Amino acid sequence: MKTLLTTVVAGTALIAAVTSHANERLLIGSTSSSSSHYSYFVAVNQIINNQIEGISSSVAETGAAVDNLRRLGRHQIDMGLVTTNIGYHAYAGEQEFEGRPVDSRLLWVYTVAPQNAVMREDAGVTTFTELDGVRFNPGITGSATEKTTEAVMTTLGIAPDYVRGSTTDIVDSMKDGRVMGSVKSGVGNRLDGSTMDIATFTPISVLSLDDEQAQTLRDEMPDIAIVDVPEGAADGIPAYTTWAFGVAVHASPDMSEETAYEIVKAIMENPQPQVNAFSAMDGADIAQMTLEVGTVPLHAGAARYFEEQGLEIPEALQPVQ
Questions:
Q1: Any idea what DSSP says for residue 148?
Q2: Which helix (H) or strand (E) holds 27?
Q3: Contact 295, 222 (CB under 8 A)
Q4: Which residues contact 160 (CB under 8 A, 6 or more apart)?
Q5: Could you read off the pLDDT of 49-92 as tens digits, one per residue?
Q6: Residue 187 has what DSSP assignment?
Q7: pLDDT in tens, 101-113
Q8: What count of other Cβ atoms lies within 10 Å of the Cβ of residue 122?
Q9: pLDDT confidence of 22, banded at 50, 70, 90?
Q10: Are 223 and 89 in contact (CB under 8 A)?
Q11: What H or E segment, with its residue span, contains residue 89?
């Protein structure tokens, strides 16, 4: 009788667990519906719904990285868009999350935005150190690029003469020589459209961090990544080293290991819908990007998938309890 009761209880628990998994519903925080990144999350949503049994998801339009992290902290979403620099600030309780840390786990990084320091060639500036006192735009006003560039320059002990403005302002100012250089996010390993617009009017170059500067940033600014951009970011542009941040998908630490594993597996093994929705991903190695520019620990389920592929997980990304 005791054996029969034990069997019934165990069977009931198993049925409950299977039913729970079969009915699992996830809400994904994205960004504004006018953004190309929103289209990417629609594709992610379709992959989850089409490829994973027992899990369904839907996409919510949100205010992007900071908003998504706060929603994760309030258990209002299960996963969402987070830039790697903001994700680190939230995890560490720094800057805009000072005294209010948000715990989240990295699932994957889907694109990397190298921060390109573009100069007019006639400025005569060939190294970052030579930017001292040069009229230079750190990024469009209010952007993550602007904030990060200023932090990088301070860390490296460089003091440009900053000029503020919108993208249109700075493009016009670089064309007519009122501003000698500007930092703009790249599109994968290519220079962005506004930089190419400038290049039609005046020859340009892209500054490269030297080895010492790159190591200083690795040591003192763990919220950013250091990346090597290969030759060909534009015609005539040689390979260079710069700082970058990624656009990632973070999850609540409450997400089960199995759910995170199944989601990451589905994403890694179904790249084409993602490329169709977000062309900058064409040819990208999502796993490599994740391990190179992630800034917070991986979810245990994501780590399990990457380890199964024979990939080495950096110490900073090792899962934590």
A1: H
A2: strand 24-29
A3: yes
A4: 131, 132, 133, 134, 135, 136, 138, 153, 181
A5: 999 999 999 999 998 898 999 999 999 999 999 999 999 999 99
A6: B
A7: 999 999 999 998 8
A8: 11
A9: low
A10: yes
A11: helix 84-92
* pLDDT per residue as tens digits for the range 114-160: 999 999 999 999 999 999 999 999 988 877 788 889 999 999 999 99
pLDDT single digits (tens) 179-218: 999 999 887 788 888 899 999 999 999 999 999 999 999 9
DSSP 141: T
| E strand residue ranges, 73-199 | 79-83, 105-120, 135-137, 161-162, 181-185
Q: Which two tokens stand for residue 98?
A: 């000072």
DSSP state of 128: G
**Burial category of 310 from C-beta neighbours within 10 Å (exposed 0-12, middle 13-18, buried 19 and up):** exposed
Would you state the structure tokens that stand for residue 293, as one six-digit string? 């520019």
- 274, 277, 280, 282 alpha-carbon torsion, rounded to 10°: 50
- Report helix, strand or coil for 271: helix
- 295 within 8 A of 87, measured Cβ to Cβ: yes
The first and second tokens of residue 213, run together, are: 């500067």
For the whole model, what pTM was predicted? 0.78
Structure tokens at 81: 């868009």
Q: Are 264 and 107 in contact (CB under 8 A)?
A: yes
